[in-house]
Design goal:
Layout lengths: L1 H5 L14 H39 L5 E5 L6 H8 L5 H12 L11 E5 L3
Antiparallel strand pairs: 1-2
Helix pairs in contact: 3-4
Protein name: LysM peptidoglycan-binding domain-containing protein
Keywords: Membrane, Transmembrane, Transmembrane helix
Pfam families: LysM
């Protein structure tokens, strides 16, 4: 009868699977951490996009624009001076770049640009 006494009976709860600290973190903590980071990123994304139109409209009122055809030898400096002679040319050049999505200062004769108008 000594053999029957030495046999251990395993129940459903003691299947030999025990989580250590790292296992508990990977099973519970890591998914919670990922969800928290995604929620924070979504809050920042939607918060910034929700405020952007209001911030842009307060900083710069809408101004009228006109189209100008680039002539041979024209530069952004020249065009900015003709478009808004009383304004700072560097600011006008930046505005022309924004209106036309320009990457640089290279212009081609015959190119049509939108420029802000003074007034």
């Amino acid at each position: 009868m000594s053999t029957a006494a030495s046999v251990q009976i395993r129940t459903a709860g003691s299947a030999g699977f025990h989580l250590n600290r790292r296992g508990r973190f990977l099973l519970v903590g890591f998914p919670v951490l990922v969800v928290a980071v995604l929620a924070a990123a979504a809050a920042v994304f939607f918060g910034v996009n929700g405020m952007a139109p209001a911030a842009a409209s307060e900083e710069r009122p809408a101004r009228a624009v006109q189209s100008v055809t680039v002539g041979y030898g024209d530069t952004l400096w020249d065009i900015a001076g003709r478009a808004e002679p009383d304004a700072a040319r560097n600011e006008t050049i930046l505005r022309i770049g924004e209106l036309n999505s320009l990457d640089g200062a290279d212009l081609q004769p015959g190119q049509v640009l939108f420029v802000p108008t003074s007034g």
